[in-house]
């Protein structure tokens, strides 16, 4: 078969690129090494983790908060096996949706490991060693990422696990050590802590979610501590030893030799992900990698070879599904002769803990480093009628606006529904709104979004109404 475009990898980057290319009239093939489409995000990432976060939140609320609302529950219990089963139902349904979309858009799907024979021939080898070669004018590499698992951590997929295995634990563990206070560590740490597991997080840096605004780190850590998570900041794990039914995690202070051992049922390794390029045959086409093993691309996402592009987790930038999707769309449109553009500064980041954390634009520290003078407007959730009505009073909205022009340069939210609220900030910043623009917009009452308006009022003129 001969295609205009072949996409290798069916995650949110790859399948979106394939759909957009097909919409633009290209004869398109999608190659996926696993039986199921959807990549990390749909199968072992965004969707299953959110399914378990929702289930565990229901339990946590029933156990901790229903009584306050006047709801009595007798005989409350957790069936983690059922939660995992429901999670899988959600995943299967979502993955099924991608199969449907491929058919609808007439994208030919090949299941098997894709590799370059040369720049215009892709070999697809299935699990039984059967191969097929397809011809293509252009190719997009969208092969995603895998968890980083250092040898000293003895990753055995049984007791020393990554997010992939954590999503399938069917009995609530007594104790879990999480290495890494980043997004995965805190989201999955929250799932188990809510179900009653004693969770200890070891983080090398002096704060959790270090990529987000400092105030968000502080506020989230305070909330998670209340939920029972324990943190060892400025500590590193030097070794993990596995027993039959437990793990011994060797922890050392980052700045001295002092250390201790934590024994737990599981050790979740969540210290980041690495680009996945193994077996692609990049050496056959001269595609280069950078110092971090990512496929090197230019501003149009083109690799060292003119007919090969790369998108998503396998290239530089945030490892986020929506970033991969934007890049998939962008490359398909470039190939169709259009001139699309991505504003990387306005890709929001969200952590789906409770409270949720969401941010877009620059953090206060980044702006300080860049020497940009800003006005800071903050508004706490506890001053919000909507938050008091639901007793979700932990959190705040922080708006950073240019001191001279009042343009909004960063919005950072910790609190209920932050994940959805950040969309307003993205839209406002995409249109280069000033803090005053946001402050003068009507926000529904009572709603959490009123905190955005109030923070904007604070940033503009230090004149919030409700504090
Ligand atoms: P992937 O989704 O990794 O897909 C790559 C695909 O390529 C895979 O299916 C792989 O099998 C296939 N492949 C690899 N090599 C070959 C080959 N040679 N031949 C054929 N196929 C190949 N991001 C968010 O934005 N929001 C979230 O809430 C979120 N939650 C997450 C939770 C967890 C637990 C994890 C692990 C990640 C989460 N992410 C989240 C990150 C998100 O999953 C990734 O950023 C996203 O999946 C990247 O998309 P991608 O298309 O680049 O690659
Ligand atoms: P991460 O980069 O978010 O966090 C890793 C943390 O581990 C960092 O804080 C780092 O300082 C720490 N660390 C590294 N080595 C360590 C060591 N030896 N000891 C102790 N701490 C150590 O990576 P994570 O959580 O694994 O997630 C991977 C990617 O997946 C992220 O880049 C994220 O973008 C994506 N993801 C996104 C989600 C979302 O959008 N909600 C959810 C889950 C994952």
What this model shows, in words?
The chain has 467 residues and is of the alpha/beta class. It folds into 3 domains: 2-146 and 274-344, FAD/NAD(P)-binding domain (3-Layer(bba) Sandwich); 151-271, FAD/NAD(P)-binding domain; 355-461, FAD/NAD-linked reductase, C-terminal dimerisation domain (Enolase-like, domain 1), CATH 3.30.390.30. It has 13 helices and 22 strands. The chain has helices at residues 12-23, 39-44, 46-64, 80-104, 163-166, 183-195, 214-226, 321-335, 364-369, 385-390, 418-430, 435-439, 450-461; strands at 2-8, 28-32, 108-111, 113-118, 121-125, 131-141, 145-147, 160-161, 175-179, 198-202, 230-232, 235-242, 247-253, 259-264, 266-269, 273-275, 308-310, 349-351, 356-361, 374-380, 396-402, 408-415. Strands 1, 2, 3, 4, 5, 6 and 17 form a 7-stranded mixed beta sheet that branches. Strand 9 (175-179), helix 6 and strand 10 (198-202) form a beta-alpha-beta unit. Helix 3 (46-64) runs antiparallel to helix 4. The chain is globular, with a radius of gyration of 23 Å. The chain starts with a strand and ends in a 6-residue tail after the last helix. The structure holds flavin-adenine dinucleotide and 1,4-dihydronicotinamide adenine dinucleotide. Flavin-adenine dinucleotide binds next to helix 1, strand 2, helix 2, helix 3 and strand 4.
